[in-house]
Design brief:
The protein has 338 residues and is of the alpha+beta class. The chain contains twelve helices and ten strands. The strands form two sheets. Strands 3, 4, 6, 7, 9 and 10 form a six-stranded antiparallel beta sheet that branches. Strands 1-2-8-5 form a four-stranded antiparallel beta sheet. Strand 3 and strand 4 form a beta hairpin. It is elongated and about 85 Å long.
Length: 338
C-alpha cells in the first residue's frame, strides 16, 4: 500500500461522518423490521402510508409516488426493497466496505428523501435538512472513501487480489485514479451541484431565498373537486394536500349552501362519525375514514365521498356552495352547479 501521512488520510478524517450517516440509513431498516413491524400493510404505522404523505407536494417524482400508492402490491414490494437497500448501504458504510459504491447509494437515497418529502416538517425544515445533508455527505464520502478503520483499508493493506483490481478504488477506497488537474474541478462541480439543489429546493418547498416564507406542514388544507348533486346524492372528491403528517384533518361538518348563502343541507359531526364505508371510495393507501368523533382525512389521502340525503333530491337547479369544516375552525369551499 502507498505510504502516506495518517493525519492526511481523508477517509480517516470522515470516520464520524461515516458512522453517523451509516447508522441513519441502517436504523431505518432496524426500526421497520426489528423494533416494529412497519412493513405490514395491515398494521398501524405501515411505511407505505408515510410514503403516501409525500405525494401532494413531491418535486419531480410525484408520478412515480402516485403510481405506487395506487397499486398497493407494487408499493409493498418497493417499500421492502427500499428498506433492504437502506439496511445494506448503512451497514456497509459503517464498516467501510465498498465505501464509494455505498456513498452513491447514500446520495440517491437522500435525493429521493429530498424530492419526495423535503416539504414536510412542522417545527423546522426536518425532511429537507435530512435530504440536503445526505446528498452532501454522500458526495464527500465518495471523494474520501474510508480510511484506517474500515474493511476497505484492511483489503488494501493486505494487498488482496480484490484490492489490486483497477476498479477497486472506484467502488471502495484508496486514491481515486483522477489526475490532479481534474480532481479539483470534480470537487467544485459536485459542490456547486449540491449547493444548487439545496438553494433550489429550499426556495421551492419553503420560500427560503425570497418572497414569503411558508411551511406546508403547519395547517391542514383540503382540495375539493368534481362536486355533483344527482337525485338524492351529493358526491365530490376530497384530497388533503397540506398539514401535519402524523395527524389527520378532523372534518366535523359538511354543509351545502344556496346562492343566498342559506344552509340547505348539512351533515354534522355525529353523522360523519357514523358514515358507512360504502360512502367513501379511497384512491390511495392512506385512507379517509370515519373516526370516533369526526371524519378523518390523513395527509395525502384522496377519496370520493357519496353522501345521501332526502333533502338533496328536492333542491331546485342552481348554484350551490359546498363547505367542509375542520375542527380547527378552518373550512374549504367548492361551487357546484345543479
Amino acid at each position: 500500500m502507498k505510504n502516506y501521512s495518517i493525519k492526511n488520510d481523508a477517509g480517516l478524517l470522515t470516520l464520524s461522518l461515516r458512522m453517523v450517516v451509516g447508522w441513519t440509513y441502517f436504523s431505518a431498516f432496524w426500526r421497520r423490521t426489528i423494533l416494529a413491524n412497519k412493513l405490514d400493510p395491515e398494521v398501524s404505522g405501515y411505511i407505505g402510508e408515510k410514503f403516501n404523505h409525500f405525494l401532494p407536494n413531491a418535486l419531480g417524482i410525484k408520478p412515480m409516488i402516485q403510481h405506487l400508492v395506487e397499486n398497493p402490491d407494487t408499493l409493498w414490494l418497493s417499500m421492502v426493497t427500499f428498506t433492504i437497500i437502506e439496511g445494506i448501504v448503512g451497514l456497509l458504510i459503517i464498516f467501510g466496505l465498498f465505501t464509494r459504491l455505498m456513498s452513491i447509494g447514500v446520495f440517491f437515497l437522500a435525493m429521493g428523501i429530498l424530492l419526495g418529502s423535503g416539504w414536510i416538517g412542522t417545527t423546522c425544515l426536518d425532511e429537507w435538512q435530512i435530504g440536503v445533508l445526505g446528498i452532501a455527505s454522500g458526495f464527500v464520502l465518495f471523494l474520501t472513501g474510508s480510511g484506517k478503520y474500515s474493511l476497505d483499508y484492511f483489503l488494501l493493506n493486505q494487498g488482496t487480489n480484490l484490492s489490486q483490481k483497477s476498479w477497486f478504488s472506484w467502488i471502495a477506497s484508496g486514491e481515486l485514479p483522477i489526475s490532479d488537474a481534474i480532481f479539483p474541478k470534480l470537487v467544485l462541480t459536485g459542490s456547486l451541484f449540491t449547493l444548487g439543489m439545496t438553494l433550489m429546493t429550499n426556495q421551492v418547498f419553503h420560500g427560503g431565498l425570497w418572497g414569503t416564507l411558508h411551511n406546508k406542514s403547519v395547517k391542514p388544507k383540503l382540495e375539493i373537486s368534481q362536486g355533483k348533486i344527482e337525485n338524492n346524492t351529493l358526491s365530490f372528491n376530497v384530497y388533503r394536500t397540506e398539514g401535519v403528517d402524523v395527524y389527520g384533518s378532523w372534518v366535523i361538518n359538511i354543509g351545502l349552501y344556496d346562492d343566498q348563502q342559506k344552509l340547505v343541507w348539512n351533515l354534522d359531526q355525529s353523522g360523519l362519525a357514523k358514515l358507512p364505508e360504502e360512502s367513501i371510495s379511497n384512491y390511495y393507501i392512506a385512507k379517509v375514514k370515519a373516526g370516533m368523533h369526526s371524519l378523518i382525512v390523513p395527509l395525502g389521502a384522496k377519496a370520493k365521498l357519496s353522501l345521501k340525503g332526502e333533502l338533496l333530491s328536492n333542491l331546485p337547479d342552481g348554484k350551490y356552495t359546498l363547505r367542509i369544516s375542520d375542527i380547527s375552525g378552518a373550512y374549504w369551499s367548492h361551487h357546484i352547479l345543479k
